[in-house]
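Following up on my earlier thread - several people asked me to post the actual chain instead of describing it. Fair enough. Here it is, all 214 residues.
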Amino acid sequence: VTWGLCSACARRSVDGGKTWGPVIAIADGIHSGGTMVDETTGDILVFVEDSHPPAPLRVHRSRDDGQTWSECEVRVHPDKEGRTPSMHMNEHGITLQHVPYKGRLLRASRWYADGDDTFEFPRHFTNAVFSDDGGATWQTSEPFPAFGTGEAAVVELADGSIYCNSRRHWAPHGRPTIRRWSARSTDGGATWADLRQVCELPDGPQDDSFGLFG
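Reply from S.P.:
Thanks for posting it. Predicted structure:
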């Protein structure tokens, strides 16, 4: 398990979670969520940002089941509009299992625009990053098809498509923020379509927008 507000840390269990070993320091900085296992190599990747994003990103890799960690050189390419995403507060990444994208690493990310101020929320959006070379270089997907989104998770479905489920902190007048929203990708996480409000998944208190930032 990995975590960290001021420093990224890990603890290991070798008995299915019954007991846990000592804290293992990974790096100073904010743990950015999205910890992932490359199921092709067994490597574990942890994403660390220097401070609350937008902020510089570092990626740390373990090749021995989390016992030791080292910073690795990576490059995250921006999207076609020149926007480099942040990794902060998204769920774990996955290794795709279906051709033609088998072995691709994919995790949710987000665009913070010029910061996390309330007036920036209408410009925020969920997206994803993916790597076809074991995490050395990452491409940024097109935006999730709804502004005001962030804090997302991805899963590969049985047909090989990718399902993305995201919180929505801001929405145009008349569109709810108290339910989660979803979209799908049929190209390994590069583009997203089929936006839907997930009525079955409430998000936060249902009598106001507290916790969803309006």
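The two ends are 32 Å apart (CA to CA). That should answer part of your original question.
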